[in-house]
Amino acid sequence: MQSAVETLSPTRVRLTVEVPFAELKPELDKAYKTIGAQVKVQGFRPGKVPPRILDQRVGRGVVLEEAVQEALPRLYSEAVTETGVSPVGRPEVDVTKLDDGTELTFTAEVDVRPEFDLPAYDSLSVTVDDAVVSDEDVTTQVDELRERFAKLSPVERAAADGDYVTLDLVATVGGEDVPGGTAQGLSYQIGAGDLLDGIDEAVTGKSAGDATTFTTTLVAGEYEGQEAEVSVTVRAVNERELPAADDTWAETTGFATFEELQADVRTRLEKMKALEQGVQARDKVLEALLATIDAPLPESVLEAELEWRKQSTTEQLQRAGLTLDMYLENEGKGEEEFEQEVRDSATEAVKAQLVLDAVADKEELGVTDAELTDQVVRRAQRAGVSPDQYAQSVVSSGQLPGLVSEVRRGKALATVMEAASITDASGKAVDLDALRDDLDPTQAADTEYDEDGRPFHVHPDGDVHYLDEQ
How many C-beta atoms lie closer than 10 Å to residue 161's C-beta? Predict the structure, then answer.
């Protein structure tokens, strides 16, 4: 077999492959066997029909076409290996010549990874935020924990901001009850802002038993956009009481003393700050690496990434009961602005993949079974399934090569991070070794962490999805 490469652009090549007909023998034999099993010829058992009889019955051309289609993937793969090109997309294959018994010639146009020079990793320098936990941070966290243990107690006074009130509501438009606009015994915290516009002003200053009316513009339902008159009766006023910040309360949370609880909170905050710092370092190092490289991107790969991102966004919005138009209106964005944001993020992602693949090739990085298993366990936890279930899903869906590539890119980024200069805002070098087990280089850059250090994503509809939820 002879292969030649023609460069069509910095990101696309055409392979011309000439194959002696004898190299098609395995596929030709298989084609005769496959077709022979489907053709009934008197005097011959299925699959035992001689080739010359099949040529007469179905035609030699049918057999040749079956054999060529079977052989092309193998021949293309061998040509790629022979020429050393780096495909990053599906090839467009065209059989240009087929001389029975003599030769097969075909061309394959395919996008390839562009050529570019990588910088010296130790030339990269980034600065990240300090990972400092103040006494105020600890106090704020403790107060938030106290709020979780707060109790509601009825009070004989007028309702004020922050109180929980029990309400009866009736909403009408033009004297007609609004469907779904009636509620009894509804609990609402004044100032929460998650009920009806005007409700806070209406009930503030009211005591149990008081009734009033107010008008509001309905934002959903049959009467969306219309003004409704709402009659509201305050049935009870409850004050939220936080537990005292002392040893007695600390014992109810599983700690011997309040001081021990504070120490635990500080430890968790320090871990969270360190994780945030590590994530910031990872993202900034990658950003710095990409900034040093100017390379064209394969169009087919970019378009595939764009399509995937649009489809993913649409599916997330549908699960939330939203359309793209509703989302854009909520965000105050136009369609062109949204399209540009998606294109920019897709462009950055494709460039990162190509650059990290180049780093992995240069450093001759591979993926061990242990590393792959670790990644399967991590992702199974995020998906809320067992590692075995996740592994079977990856294999059956054909996603295993993609997962291996992602792990390999993660190792490439980790290699760059080890060599890069990473300092905090105070000028102190950041040691990421302590975070090696917690910081996943393959984790998406848009991951955020809550006050407990738990990783989460915010979907376009605003819904928070914790990655470690089971």
Answer: 9
